[in-house]
Amino acid sequence: MNRPELIQRWIRDWQQGRLSRRELLRRVTLLGMSSFALANLLTACARSQPTPTPASTEASPRVGAAIPDYIDRSKLDKELNFYNWSEYIDPGILTEFQETYGVKVTMDTYASNEDLLAKLQGGATGYDVIVPSDYMVSIMINLGLLEPLDYSVIKTIANIDPENLKPYYDPDNTYSVPYMWGTSGYSYDTNVLGQDLASWKEVFEPRPEVRGKVVMLDDQREVIGAALMYLGYEINETSDDALARAKQLLLTQKPYVLAYSSQNNDDLLVAGEALIAHIWTGDALMSEQEKPTLRYVIPTEGCTVWQDNLCVPKTAPHKYTAMVFIDFLNRPDIAGRNASYIMYGSPNKAAREQGYIDQEVLNNPGVYPPPEVWKRLQWIKDVGEEGALKLDRLWTEIKTG
Ligand code: N2P
Known about the structure:
The chain is an alpha/beta fold and 401 residues long. The chain has helices at 3-15, 21-30, 35-46, 91-101, 113-121, 134-142, 190-193, 201-204, 220-230, 240-253, 265-271, 281-290, 319-329, 332-342, 349-353, 359-362, 371-374, 384-400, and strands at residues 79-85, 104-110, 129-130, 177-189, 214-216, 257-260, 276-280, 294-297, 303-310, 377-379. Pentane-1,5-diamine binds next to α12 and β9.
């Protein structure tokens, strides 16, 4: 199939709901088509876009599909409830799981670790697999919210890089398998602001043309952490002095903030309504595909680095199937395809080594920072009950102040 035919086929897939707009953009950019040309094409096609027809809702396994022999098919449920961050999985992977295992996955999304915790503590008992970050895994372990993982099922743990295993928050990986990792810097439009932005100053004390066009993550640990780092503190600092200074900085910044949003920060940047956005790596890089003048910065003062994890809540109704799903997500081909799509750092060593991750992503220093940049990254840690309470109070004051 030649290039125009391929593009036409993908556009048809997009029109019929088989391909997301993001994936379409990603593929045509890889083929070398400019996003401007594609945008024109899509505007023309969108006029005739029919209502997407979802893939069959009947969850039946494909004949001869590759289910490993260590999986006991008779113990599989028909459905699985996945609670994930938004835009944090290639949707085709859920379809493939359904086709291979005959399990229909329903996915809900959340915007922060604190939202996830509140939901579980509020009595939501339907979720089978969740994706908390490092410090939230330790909080959840301490609260007794997590189920030990069954490594007789999750054999694909062998594909995970030993560097990413045995983390401080779960030293034996009893409750968690690393999913993706990344950093939280900022993205900005070089067309308006040039090539040289490097400090958090641009975010917290923005130049006049950026005022009112700054977007911050809607995430207390990230926002307060970035402010603390800009002020020269460690991000897990909770002393009254440090928090008073962070509060002052954030309240002074607030009139210049267009929105606190972890889900629309990328869209606002792409639409040009925001000029700078505090953002997670993958979201930053995906929006660069839509708007190539965007540039992701890990600020000179440093920023957070985090690792998100696949975990099973104690209350999960489909525990065996949850373990099987985690095993599937760690397959090198699946993990590689996923990391290429969402553009985050992958802990899956086999996927990296076996060529399943796009070179373009693997070679991107924003995704896999070089050692000199690593030196300025800091992990968010569990600051204990009293610390968490202080941060929570401060965050409410910022948001409502
Ligand atoms: C992706 C969410 C990233 C998770 N949109 C940040 N921990």
